[in-house]
User: Fold this.
Amino acid sequence: MEDQEQGTKSRVMKVDSKESWDFHVNQATVQGSPIVAHFTAAWCIPSVAMNPFMEELASMYQNTISFLTIDVDEVKEVASKYEVKAMPTFLLLKDGVPVDKLIGANPDEIRKRVQSLAQSNPTDIA
Assistant:
């Protein structure tokens, strides 16, 4: 996979437009990959503090789950569509459809929900 060859490059894909969001969601849906979307803002300290944690999760689930980060100030249309009103907000999608939403910087709860999402995915790591 590309990510493995890129070494230190982020495994969390940055979404910088509605078109970028649509592309990543469509690609993940075609691949049968669930999505963990981290809605963030540069001015939100708890959101920024979650970035290394999201990288850690993305590394753990690199072959089964797509991880996206969306700055709500840059991509207002997507944040509005999913009614993101507080940061950080984590939206979990399966087949392009939201299946879970978590508001706040709670690493333990996020880890549990991502693990559950991975276990419900038929393309789990063998």
